[in-house]
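I have been asked to look over a protein record a colleague put together. Thanks in advance; the entry in question is below.
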Amino acid sequence: MNTDEFELVEKEQVASYHFPLEEILKSEKEMAARKEAIERANSLGNLEHYKVKIYFADEVSKKRIDTTIWGVTDRAILLKQNVVLPIHRIIKLEI
């Protein structure tokens, strides 16, 4: 994956984006790896306030945020200031 094609945005902007309902990843293996990375990033965020790079896509383009994950639900990750990012639109995390 070429990360140069991702626009760096502020986490506060995420609330204004529209996210399609379709899963962005194609394989079960990719989805399992994403789930594992989210769980690890959530633990690091809660224990050490560790920031991660989150690569995702809305309906317009590919984007990246550098932030701490504060919580995880079955469908979304929770960031500071009640910002919610749907898991099915996350392409990759860099921890």
